[in-house]
Amino acid sequence: MDEFILIFIQNHFHNGFTDLFFPFITVLGNAGLIWVVSGLCLICTKKYRFYGVMLLAALVLTHTLGEGILKPLVARPRPFAVYSGYHLLIAAPRGYSFPSGHAGAAFAAAFVLGKANRRLGIPAFALAFLIAFSRVFLFVHYPSDILAGAILGVLSAGFICLLFKKT
């Protein structure tokens, strides 16, 4: 199923607009930058400071579990390393494919932002979805990498929220 979805997207979703749009969207998720900035902005407000700390903690946990443990353990090559004949629209990322760090960070942050304020959560989840999809569109992740990253992010953020509520 992974291969079918991946190849279907490559063969049917590329056009002048998407080939410019999705590289831009994926850059927003590079190093979790937009989410780190979001967390820092929350910390700067008295009302949402607690959520800013939780957001940053969720990003750290997601990154540690995904990049530090799961990626080296699974060691799944990226799609562009497996399938030839497809042109990358971004620089080839280093490292393994599973799970997606972009999706993990995006969904961890969106989860916490949704807890902080529903009106923040809705656009955060929309952006998380776009960032996650961009990784498949750009041929650097399989759909299952995205799903695993999203689940990891939500579980990590949920754990952080529970942990912080008990302290």
Automatic annotation (TrEMBL):
<keyword id="KW-0472">Membrane</keyword>
<keyword id="KW-0378">Hydrolase</keyword>
<feature type="transmembrane region" description="Helical">
    <location>
        <begin position="50"/>
        <end position="70"/>
    </location>
</feature>
<keyword id="KW-1003">Cell membrane</keyword>
<keyword id="KW-1133">Transmembrane helix</keyword>
<feature type="transmembrane region" description="Helical">
    <location>
        <begin position="96"/>
        <end position="113"/>
    </location>
</feature>
<dbReference type="Pfam" id="PF01569">
    <property type="entry name" value="PAP2"/>
</dbReference>
<keyword id="KW-0812">Transmembrane</keyword>
<feature type="domain" description="Phosphatidic acid phosphatase type 2/haloperoxidase">
    <location>
        <begin position="51"/>
        <end position="161"/>
    </location>
</feature>
<feature type="transmembrane region" description="Helical">
    <location>
        <begin position="20"/>
        <end position="43"/>
    </location>
</feature>
<protein>
    <submittedName>
        <fullName>Phosphatase PAP2 family protein</fullName>
    </submittedName>
</protein>
<feature type="transmembrane region" description="Helical">
    <location>
        <begin position="146"/>
        <end position="164"/>
    </location>
</feature>
<feature type="transmembrane region" description="Helical">
    <location>
        <begin position="120"/>
        <end position="140"/>
    </location>
</feature>
<dbReference type="InterPro" id="IPR000326">
    <property type="entry name" value="PAP2/HPO"/>
</dbReference>
<dbReference type="InterPro" id="IPR036938">
    <property type="entry name" value="PAP2/HPO_sf"/>
</dbReference>
